[in-house]
Amino acid sequence: MAVIDVVNSKGETVSQTDLPDGVFNVSVKPEVLHQVVNMQLARRRSGTAAVKHRSDIKGSTRKLFRQKGTGRARRGDIKSPLLRGGGVVFGPDNRSYEKRIPKKVRKLALKMALSSRYQSEKLTVVDGFGLERIRTKAFAAVLEALGKKNVLIITDGKDEVLELSSRNLPGTKVLRTDGLNVYDILKYEHLVLIEPSIQQIEGRLQK
């Protein structure tokens, strides 16, 4: 197992902890990460763009005028795509952009994303943020002591004080372990784990 320092809210090393090699030290394959990130982004697309086709338009089906003798182009009913207010011929319809990837591949990609942060020395473990009440200034001071900007923080459970203190600070996001995902890990430059979350991540990925 790899060993990493655990720091406090002042950036001082207070202890060390083990990181399981099967989660934080696997070989990284960019093509697998790319595949899973594409899946996540595709699932975020609403797919609600739609138009009304000829059959969706309300209107009479009566022929507008006789076929011959008027000198005008022949017309059918008022719902014709050639007329203003008529149906659209080749417009978009509701659809799902969801892509399916095997569960094993998704787990592997998550391990690779965590490993990429550890191998590039952009992973930090803290014993806690020590915030007593909701205060953005106090949270920003902890990040400054840690020397981190553009950071994703992973907690072992609900921490309302931390979550609300961080929400107005740009380039910062707090996630619980059950919401950990490849896209967010790769989006933020630094990854900060609160120490108890390591065991939860290991239990989730090594089932």
In a few lines, what is going on in this structure?
Helices cover 34% and strands 15% of the residues. The chain has 207 residues and is α/β, with parallel strands linked by helices.
Walk me through what this model shows:
- About 35% of the residues lie in helices and about 15% in strands.
- It is α/β, with parallel strands linked by helices.
- The protein has 2 domains: about 1-45 and about 95-205, Ribosomal protein L4/L1 (Ribosomal Protein L4, Chain: A, 3-Layer(aba) Sandwich); about 45-95, no CATH class.
- The protein has a 6-stranded mixed β-sheet with strand order 2-1-3-6-4-5, sandwiched between helices.
- Strand 4 (about 150-155), helix 5 (about 160-165) and strand 5 form a beta-alpha-beta unit.
- The radius of gyration is 27 Å and the shape is elongated.
Distance between the termini: 18 Å
Write down the domain tally: 2
Structural class: alpha/beta
Instruction: Catalogue the unreliable spans.
Output: none
Q: What's the name of the CATH homologous superfamily of the largest domain?
A: Ribosomal protein L4/L1
Percent strand equals 15-25%
Approximate helicity band: 25-40%
Furnish the topology, listing elements before pairings.
Blueprint: E1 2-7, E2 13-19, H1 21-24, H2 30-44, H3 103-119, E3 123-126, H4 136-146, E4 151-155, H5 160-166, E5 172-176, H6 182-187, E6 190-194, H7 196-205
Parallel strand pairs: 1-3, 3-6, 4-5, 4-6
Antiparallel strand pairs: 1-2
Helix pairs in contact: 4-5
